[in-house]
Amino acid sequence: MTTAEASTRHVTPEELQAMPDGDAYELIDGELRERNVSAESSRIAANVTYLLVGYAQTHGGMVFATDLGLKIFPGRPNHVPRPDGSFVAAGRVHDDVTPSTGFLEIVPDLVVEVVSPNDTAYGLDAKVRDYLGVGVRLVWVAYPEARYVMVWRADGSLSMVGNGDMLRGEDVLPGFETPVAELFPKRAAVAPVESAGS
Predict the structure, then answer these.
(1) pLDDT tens string 42-81
(2) Does residue 130 sit within a domain?
(3) Is there a domain that residue 83 lies in?
(4) Of 104, 110, 151, 196, whose CB has the highest number of CB atoms within 10 Å?
């Protein structure tokens, strides 16, 4: 099945998995949605994944990258978002029982989303509420342009962590902390342009 054929009707996770370019799409209740990714959002997702892998090597747990779809929504069998990263705490999943379907079927403890230019506030809010609704304990949403992270928690609380602050794993990743600035690529200084008359 081609992407063009799939886009005209509802798609199942199995069909998504069989598509040669399937990992370029999320499945939103059976509808193919091309993933919004920019070079900057991809770099930030890689930075977060790197930090989480370092944590997991010391504390246990499993880290999953941006190409893995989450098939974790009861009653919504054709809903497979692909967050920019996710983490499952130690003891909840083992290498030998990781699902081989191409999707993660265990609710992560942490989900990471990085805002891309075409993301909408409504769409991001809906995603976060979906994650929390199935038991994700912590969601980090990174905003590259403004360089801050919104932290959503299972209890419904929300806070903003700015560029000069520390991002902490709280009770979900005990002991994890990193300066928010470490998540965002360094911006090169731009030399002033001299005027023609100088």
Answers:
(1) 999 999 999 999 999 999 999 998 889 999 999 999 999 9
(2) yes
(3) yes
(4) 110
d(CA 23, CA 19): 8
Residue 79's nearest CA partner among 127, 123, 35, 29 is 29
Helices and strands (H, E) in the chain, number of each type: 4, 12
Rounded CA separation 18/5 (Å): 13
User: Which residue range is the domain that position 102 belongs to?
Assistant: 36-183
Is 28 or 94 the better-scoring residue by pLDDT? 28
CA 189 to chain centre: 29
Residue 129 counted as domain residue: yes
Cα 70 to Cα 92: distance, rounded to the nearest angstrom = 16
The pTM for the full model equals 0.85
Is residue 43 assigned to a domain? yes
